[in-house]
Amino acid sequence: MRYIGAVYRPPSEAESLIIQATLGCSHNRCSFCGSYLNKPFLIRKIQDIKEDLAESAHMGPVRKIFLADGDALCIPQKRLVEVLELVNHYHPEVERIGIYGSAKDVLRKSVDDLRQLNRLKLGIVYLGVETGDESLLKKICKGADYGQLVEAAKKVKEANIALSVTILLGIGGIDGSIDHAKGTARILTDMDPDFVGALSVILVPGTPLHDEFSRGLFSLPDPFGLIEELRIMIAESSFSNCVFRSNHASNYLPVKATLPGDKKRILTAIEAVLSSKDPGKLRPEFLRAL
Prior knowledge:
By secondary structure, the protein is α/β, with parallel strands linked by helices. The chain has a single domain (11-280), classed as Alpha-Beta Barrel (TIM Barrel). 37% of the residues lie in helices and 17% in strands. The protein has helices spanning 46-56, 77-90, 103-107, 111-119, 134-139, 146-158, 177-191, 208-214, 223-236, 263-276, and strands spanning 17-20, 22-23, 42-43, 64-68, 96-100, 122-130, 162-169, 195-200, 242-245, 256-259. The strands form 2 sheets. An 8-stranded mixed β-sheet has the order 1-4-5-6-7-8-9-10. A two-stranded antiparallel ribbon has the order 2-3. Helix 1 runs parallel beside helix 2, helix 7 packs parallel to helix 9 and helix 9 runs antiparallel to helix 10 (263-276).
């Protein structure tokens, strides 16, 4: 298998076969993200993807496959259908294919396009939301506004594809912390995703956000400030049936819940941590990572 540069995948794709359908990220302007700073965006040639899949076919049965890199859903429909057909040809046993996508990637496709991808076993789209604060979405150069994010979410769900969204604790800084938390609770309610993954900001050298921090223009909330954001997001959001996780390595407090069923239990646990202000109950700093 050929992998070009660093390869990132969602935590839930830990046991998946990863196939690079694109290199880098077609947007690559989010102020906090350093994942693809030095990797020019490229849609890989079909022949290269085919060769990787042919090689992977000798590895034995594969249950899940993840198409990297940053937003492979940006691939034009005809080409993406060809990629998925190749995946199914070389791995007919695969149960689910996953992919990163931006709101604009989703909105460029029709519901029928997405349903076609779903028939080819595209079973989950991972969408970076980060925040529901409209002004903050502009500030971090997310590339989509509140309405576009919600519209994209509804389109994915209408196509019977599972939707997993990422939110980012701390992205509003100290001054914007509460507005960020409350806005994120609102957008999660409006999107009603199947899965939510909460990560915490880690300042990456070379990013615009790190530059703001270095110039004293951005300050991260302390660990308990980040956990208070998490509390607000859970308390003020409403879901039909959502698996909510904050067990990413960047977080100080791992949370595993299915909402709304576990809401009271999880809020009680979070409030106990906030009341105690005991650092011993948090993940040690040296264990935090992207």
